[in-house]
Amino acid sequence: MASEYIITLADIAQIPGLFKNGFLQGRAEPRIAFVGRSNVGKSSLINALLEERIARVSATPGKTKAIHFFLWGTHKKIVADLPGYGFARVAKDEQKTWARLMDSYFHADSRLEVVMILFDSRHGPTDQDLEALEFFASKGTPIQIVLTKVDQLKNQSERAKRKKEILQALAPYEIGEEDLFWVSVKDRNTLHQLRGMLK
Ligand SMILES: Nc1nc2c(ncn2[C@@H]2O[C@H](COP(=O)(O)OP(=O)(O)O)[C@@H](O)[C@H]2O)c(=O)[nH]1
Ligand SMILES: [Mg+2]
After folding, report:
1. 195: which of 1, 73, 134, 144 lies 20 to 30 Å off by Cα?
2. Domains of the chain, earliest start first
3. Residue 59 has what pLDDT?
4. Vertex 197, ends 20 and 143: CA angle to 5°?
5. Atom 1 in ligand 1: residue holding the nearest Cα
6. How far is the C-alpha of 77 from the C-alpha of 31, rounded, in Å?
7. What pLDDT digit, counting tens, does each position of 142-169 carry?
8. What is the pLDDT of residue 60?
9. For residue range 167-176, what is the model confidence (pLDDT) as tens digits?
10. Count of alpha carbons within 13 Å of 115, Cβ hemisphere only?
């Protein structure tokens, strides 16, 4: 089965027609959602995993205002590329509209297998990252923390330092080292491992 674009959810009014009896647009494949700040690398990671230039990678943060769904052919899953949260240049009421869309989506999707929460490995979790974590934890949705762009960490000692900071920030959520997945779209090995994990 080839990977392909399925549909874009841009308005909550689409939701009732889109999700019926656990299906998404008539498709039964379980869903994997990718969330995280704008520019953290969601679309790039989706493209790298699917080995297809399918999700739009943007140099302008905050451009994705809708949820894009793609079929991951080899895995028989549907991947959701979500709007990045936390972008200051966007007006507050516009942020609310996004938050509502995301909230409605997560409420409507009964076949959401896992939410991949992406943090930038260079910066560690921001307050908004932690809010997202709390949101999904409170819903009981299975989550996987993914640290992106690890190729940007210069050496082992920088990586160790980041790891320590991230673990400290995540300790209140009972997230430990074994719950973190470090990835780079430039490192085939990490992509291979992540594909295996999402089988
Ligand atoms: N060095 C490096 N850059 C990356 C990686 N993943 C994404 N990027 C870059 O980060 C920027 C934002 O990526 P994008 O996928 O659009 O992020 P999104 O807004 O979360 O979807 C782009 O310029 C990408 O090329 C990575 O693993 N390593
Ligand atoms: Mg994107």
Report:
1. 134
2. 4-197 (3.40.50.300)
3. 61
4. 60
5. 149
6. 6
7. 999 999 999 999 999 999 999 999 999 9
8. 59
9. 999 999 999 9
10. 22
